[in-house]
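Bench notes, afternoon.
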Amino acid sequence: MNKSNQTAENGIAQLERNLNNFFYSATSYLMEAEFLLSSIFIY
């Protein structure tokens, strides 16, 4: 029982890390796109 709980907790922690990485990547990608768009409109 304890073993399966540990496995589930590890799986959830892994999921959270993946989500954090995904959101970080998406955020930096959006900031990059926003920067490109603003530089296009400036010229």
